[in-house]
Structure formats: structure tokens, C-alpha cells
Design goal:
alpha+beta, Growth Hormone, Chain: A, 4 domains, five-stranded mixed beta sheet
Length: 721
């Protein structure tokens, strides 16, 4: 039945414009949500790096497992249009649930900015992610194919152009969302307290998914909707299962062996289908090592994003958020694809090198392994700048002198001097209580809690010296913020605010709480009981911690900030995010060589009616790759992140060698020629069929018990035949 002609614009069906807009909005929704997902796990749900990585890759794995279900439902039951609509509703509902789960105010009864019922937020998040995985995966195999259905047989050129525009819309949605969503996340929002705006970061993708659904439904009357005609994947699975079952049933040596184990399906399935399944299995066998590539590739959104949180994102004209570094991948793809296709490959061809598709894929895997070596080298540089925090049986202490003269201090192991209103820059580590002696006075026994960092402030107490102990933070400030606090050595109560955050009233000889101040210039407002104000400004980087000392000599006025001293507790991030670009470049180069070539190779080696089976197999390798990551993240007990990078790189190199050996013994086939051999029955097959028909005729004539001459002649002819 020929397809109906709808409204056309410039030779293209008007319906495809609804499909392209739908795909752009859907990809924006998916990649926008996914860009901030691992940071949401870490900073909102308060999960550690390993568990955040595990759940992230579990979600991605589900997104690549559900397309198989979506394809079966569309081809065997609902059809592509209804499948897209119904699963898009599920998808949009999941995005809305995710946005609601990120609203901290819904369970923040005491209005302190921290949800009181975190279990509810976790439950909503998991439900939302499950719905999103089912929705995005379910419509994945349907939308592109549904767009292709809109063209008639004489519109081959327009169909080809449509697919180019379609994949451009995917990259455009991915790129824009990965830039915009982290910016939305970095905003402050909330009813009672202002927090990172994850509801907005998830809410905008949810709105885009609703728009995608509405746009797709609006074009309903213009679409060519083909009825479901059965799914080839189901038929292939049934054929394979029957061959295995039949072979097991005839496993006795009494039965003659067959050339291929799939030949045991000949009793039920025709030889053309069996030959096609053999070709598919031959390619799927090569897929076995491929998940390891995706195990490394998809860590751009998890481990590499977490790595960026410990780096300096100040690029001068702009400040890059850690989750925005993922935009390097789609940007490099747009650059690398034409460079590789029109420059690199032609140069290799001119050098007379036989750069086969499987060799290209091997090179792509090797480049991905190199990318993780580069990530490990960057991690080593980051680790060198990180502070050494105390273990569970250690204590650390830093000393600050708030006396207006030099002091000599001894802790039983070493002697050192501190100037007036000065702090020691490094922490001293202890494993047991120690004696503190100030200016050769009476020693004081200091006992600190295990696993803590402490600041010991020395103050004047009449004619003698006393000390006050305050606990410090024992981790880098979250999200690249700077943990700032004040010690009030002034003679009266001071009230300090920064932005919309308040330190409250700080009494003399006391330490304020820590407040996280974002990168940039922080402006602090200090007031005394009389309402006199001092404005103190300080420029901050990423991930530092400072204690600011307000001395007794502090004077309000225009230059009041000059007398405030600072003590550095944690150094700011000093390794620039730009150092991640080489690893992104290597990974993207590997993706271009591996992924694009892999799909082209698979299609060239697959029968014409089984492209979808290989597409499902390809997506399955992505899912298995993400499962590998979550297994390693949970099972590996490596203490250092750089060691985990090297582990993944080594595993991929090993798999790369195995794949190269498999590729060496692979024989390229032409599916069209093989299918042509079975298009018409072979002479032997014809003879067998004619003989069977002859025997049947003879049996019928024997039953009639006809003994006339003509019957004898006919029997003779059949015997001669």
C-alpha cells in the first residue's frame, strides 16, 4: 500500500518538522538532566563519590536496555506513533518527579536548608529516574524510524537529508542543555533558605519534555502511521532458541553433525532466515569486547565531572562549572567528524595503508585508554595539591596567636614562634595527647578527638596566657565553594553578613561558624552594637578555607579591612580545568573513530531486514559497559582515584588486544550476495521438493488402487524422473 501524500514544504513532508523539533526538545531534556545528575547525588542527596557513580551508571545502563523493550512494543503491539506518545508521557512524568524531588523546602520543617526527610527525596528521585529510563530508552528506536516512514519511495534524497538534520538536532539539544543546565543549577533558590537550584535545573528539562510531547501530538493528523507488523528481534530470538533446543535434543552421537549449530533450526525455519541469523551472530560475537570502551566513555559524566569539582574553573572571561566541562565532547565531535572524514582518512588512504573498519575501532579503543592515562596524570597533580586530612586515629592542630606580641610555643616535639595576630599555616598531626607550653610557662595537656582538625587560639587571660580550641572542617568545601569563618578578637560583639547569609552575633574571643562563599569577590559587612559598619572584601578561588582574624587593634573606618588578618586552612584549587581538555580530546577522537565506524561496519555486515537487531546489540554493549563501571566502583578497593583510572585504562588495553586478534581472523562478508543465494531455491533443493511431490502422488494413486495402463506409464515416468 502506497503512503499518502501530505503537505510538503520545499519537497519535504511538513510532518518531519514536528519530529525534528520533538527530538531537539527530548535530547535537551535528557542530556540537561543527566549533566547535573551526579552532582545532585553528591551534594543534595549527600552520597559519596563511589555510590553516586554507581547509581549514575545504573541509570544510564537502564536507558540503553529499555530500547529493546520499546522496539518490541512498537513493532509487535502499539505501533511507533502510540509507543512514542505513551512513553513520552511516562518520560515527562519522570522529569517532573525528579524536579519535585530536588525541592528541599518540602521536607525542611526547621527551615535550616537541609531536608528533614531525605528518604522521601531519595524515593522520588529513584521513581523519577526509573520512569525517565523507561521513557527515553523506549522511544529511542522509534523516533528516527518513524521520521523515515514519512517519506515515499521516490523521496530517497530527502530522507537522507532528514536523517542528517535529525542527528544535528540531537547534537544541538545535547550541546545547549549541557551549557544551560549547569548555569541554572548554580543559581540560588528556595522558599526558606537559598540553595543550589536543582529544582530549576531539572524543571527546565521537564518543561522541554512536555513541549516535545505537545509538538509531536500536534502533527498527528499529518503523519503516515504504519501498523505494527511483527518484530524481527523476536523472530531471531525464537530461531536461535529453537536451534539450541533442537541441538540439545539431538546431542547423541547417533545423529550426524551439521556444519553450523544454527543449522539445527532447519526443521522449522527457512534457510534464508538461518543464513541471516548466522551473519548477525558473527557480528554480535565481535561485540563481546566492546562494552569496555563504553565503560570508560560514559565516565565523562561521572568520574570526570567529580574530578572537575576539585579544579579551578576560572577561564578569565567566564567561569566554567564542573558539569559544563562535558560540553567539550559535543563541541569536539562537531570539529573532529569532518576532520577525520575529509583529512585523516584520505591521508591514510594515500599512504596505501589498509585501514579497515575493525582496525579503526581498535585504534579508537586505544585512544580511549590513553584518555584515562591522561586523566590519571591530571589526578596525580590534583592529589599533590590536596590537604592531608587526619585518619580515624589521628588528630591535627593549627595554632593562632591573638596576643599583641610574639610568642614561643612548644608542643613536646618542636618549638616554633608566632608573631602578633598570626597563625601557623600548616597543621601538626598527633596520635596521642601532648603538652602545650607558651613562652616557657606551665605546660597544658591537650587532648583532641580522633579524626578531627582543630584550631587552637592563644589569647590573654589576665597576666597569663590561655587557649581556646575550635574544630575545623575535614574535607574540601563542596561544589567549589570557599569555607570562611571569623575569629572576633575585638572588644565588643560583631554582627557579620555576606550576601544573604548571616554569621550572626560573634562575641569577643569566639569563632564564628563556617559559611560557604562562592568563587569571586566576597563582600563582608561587619557591624558593632552601635550600628557602625565596616565593609571588607576578599577575592576567592575554588575550594579553599580561611579563618579571618579581627584583632583587638581593629578600627572601624574606610580602611578597616586592612587590619584583618587571614589564616589559610585549605588551599584553593590550583589545577586548572583546561588540563582536562587533552583527555576529552583523546576520548572524543576515540569515539569518532570507534562509534561511527562501528555502526557503519555493523550495518555493512548485517542483512537488510536485521539492522534493528544489530542496533539493539550495539545499545546493549553501552548498557553492559555502564554495568562494568558500577561493579568496579563498588568492588574495587583502590585508595586513590588515579589508580582506578589506570585500572580502567589497563583493562581496555587488554580488551583492545583481544579485539585486534578477533578482528584479524574476521572474514568480511557481503550480506546481499549471501541473501541472493537463498532468494531462489538451489537445484538440489528443487529436486528434493519435486521428489517429495512425486512420492506423494504415487501414494495417492496407490490408494486409488488404479491398475490401468496409463497409471503404469505414469509410474514409469515418475521413476525415470
Amino acid at each position: 500500500k502506497s503512503k499518502k501524500r501530505g503537505v510538503t514544504v520545499c519537497g519535504y513532508p511538513l510532518s518531519i518538522f514536528f519530529i525534528v523539533v520533538n527530538e531537539f526538545c527530548e535530547r535537551f531534556s535528557y542530556y540537561g538532566m543527566r549533566a547535573v545528575l551526579v552532582l545532585y547525588f553528591k551534594y543534595f542527596l549527600k552520597w559519596d563519590d563511589d555510590f553516586s557513580t554507581t547509581i549514575y551508571h545504573t541509570f544510564v545502563a537502564l536507558c540503553y536496555l529499555s530500547p529493546i523493550l520499546g522496539a518490541i512494543v512498537a513493532d509487535s503491539w502499539l505501533g511507533k506513533f502510540k509507543t512514542i506518545v505513551y512513553l513520552s508521557i511516562v518520560y515527562a512524568a519522570g522529569q517532573v518527579v525528579m524536579a519535585v524531588s530536588a525541592i528541599h523546602d518540602i521536607t525542611d520543617g526547621n527551615k535550616d536548608g537541609t531536608p528533614d526527610n531525605m528518604a522521601l527525596h531519595i524515593a522520588l528521585s529513584m521513581v523519577g529516574l526509573l520512569l525517565i529510563a523507561l521513557g527515553t530508552g523506549g522511544i529511542k528506536p522509534c523516533v528516527a524510524a518513524f521520521g523515515g516512514d514519512q517519506f515515499s519511495e521516490d523521496q530517497e534524497k530527502q530522507r537522507s537529508t532528514f536523517f542528517s538534520i535529525f542527528y544535528l538536532s540531537i547534537n544541538a539539544g545535547s550541546l545547549l542543555s549541557t551549557v544551560i543546565t549547569p548555569i541554572l543549577r548554580a543559581q540560588k533558590c528556595g522558599i526558606h533558605t537559598k540553595q543550589q537550584c536543582y529544582p530549576l535545573a531539572f524543571g527546565v528539562p521537564a518543561a522541554l519534555m512536555v513541549v516535545a510531547l505537545i509538538v509531536f501530538i500536534l502533527g498527528s493528523s499529518m503523519y503516515n502511521k504504519t501498523a505494527p507488523s511483527g518484530n524481527i528481534m523476536v523472530k531471531v530470538c525464537k530461531c536461535i532458541f529453537f536451534a539450541i533446543k533442537n541441538r540439545f535434543r539431538h546431542r547423541s552421537s547417533a545423529y550426524p553433525k551439521r556444519e553450523h549449530w544454527m543449522d539445527w533450526a532447519e526443521e522449522k525455519y527457512d534457510k534464508l532466515l538461518i543464513a541471516q541469523v548466522k551473519m548477525v551472530l558473527k557480528v554480535l560475537f565481535l561485540y563481546i569486547p566492546l562494552p569496555m570502551f563504553w565503560a570508560l566513555f560514559d565516565q565523562q559524566g561521572s568520574r570526570w565531572t567529580l574530578q572537575a569539582t576539585t579544579m579551578d574553573g576560572n577561564f578569565g572571561l567566564m567561569v566554567i562549572q564542573p558539569d559544563q566541562m562535558q560540553t567539550v565532547n559535543p563541541i569536539l565531535i562537531l570539529i573532529m567528524v569532518p576532520v577525520v572524514d575529509f583529512i585523516i582518512y584520505p591521508l591514510i588512504s594515500k599512504c596505501k595503508l589498509n585501514f579497515t573498519p575493525l582496525r579503526k575501532m581498535t585504534v579508537g579503543m586505544f585512544l580511549a585508554a590513553l584518555a584515562f592515562v591522561a586523566a590519571a596524570l591530571v589526578q596525580l597533580q590534583i592529589d599533590a595539591t590536596l590537604p592531608t586530612f587526619p585518619s580515624s586515629n589521628e588528630q591535627q592542630a593549627k595554632f593562632i596567636n591573638m596576643v599583641n606580641r610574639n610568642l614561643s610555643i612548644a608542643d613536646g616535639r618542636e618549638n616554633f614562634h608566632l608573631g602578633a595576630f598570626e597563625g601557623r599555616q600548616d597543621y601538626l598531626t598527633y596520635t596521642e595527647p601532648f603538652l602545650l607550653t607558651i613562652n616557657s610557662g606551665s605546660p597544658n595537656l591537650i587532648s583532641l578527638p580522633d579524626g578531627t582538625r582543630n584550631t587552637i587560639v592563644i589569647v590573654e587571660q589576665g597576666p597569663a596566657f590561655g587557649y581556646i580550641t575550635f574544630q575545623d572542617i575535614v574535607a574540601k568545601p563542596e561544589e567549589g565553594a570557599n569555607a570562611i569563618r571569623f575569629f572576633n578578637g575585638y572588644g565588643s560583639v560583631l554582627n557579620i553578613t555576606v550576601g544573604d547569609q548571616e554569621y550572626g552575633d560573634i562575641v569577643p574571643n569566639n569563632m564564628s561558624i563556617f559559611i560557604n562563599v562562592p568563587q569571586g569577590t566576597g563582600k563582608f559587612f561587619m557591624k558593632n552594637n552601635g550600628g557602625v559598619e565596616c565593609v571588607f572584601s576578599r577575592k576567592f578561588g575554588f575550594g579553599s578555607s580561611y579563618t579571618f582574624l579581627i584583632p583587638p587593634t581593629f578600627v572601624f573606618g574606610e580602611h578597616c579591612g586592612e587590619s584583618i588578618k587571614e589564616v589559610e586552612n585549605i588551599k584553593p584549587n590550583s589545577i586548572h580545568m583546561a588540563w582536562q581538555i587533552p583527555q576529552y580530546f583523546l576520548m572524543t577522537s576515540g569515539e569518532v573513530v570507534f562509534s561511527v565506524t562501528g555502526l557503519e561496519f555493523s550495518y555493512s555486515q548485517a542483512p537488510s531486514n536485521m539492522k534493528s537487531v544489530l542496533q539493539a546489540g550495539w545499545l546493549l554493549t553501552v548498557a553492559v559497559g555502564n554495568i562494568i563501571v558500577l561493579i568496579v566502583a563498588e568492588a574495587a578497593t583502590l585508595p586513590d582515584q588515579w589508580a582506578e583510572y589506570i585500572l580502567f585504562s589497563s583493562l581496555l588495553v587488554l580488551v583492545c588486544i583481544i579485539f585486534a586478534i578477533m578482528a584479524y581472523f574476521y572474514t568480511y562478508t557481503d550480506p546481499a550476495k549471501i541473501e541472493a543465494l537463498f532468494a531462489n531455491p538451489e537445484p538440489d533443493d528443487k529436486e528434493k521438493k519435486n521428489l517429495e511431490m512425486t512420492k506423494k502422488d504415487m501414494a495417492e494413486k496407490h490408494e486409488r488402487r488404479s491398475s490401468d495402463t496409463s497409471s503404469d506409464e505414469e509410474d514409469g515416468k515418475q521413476t525415470n524422473f
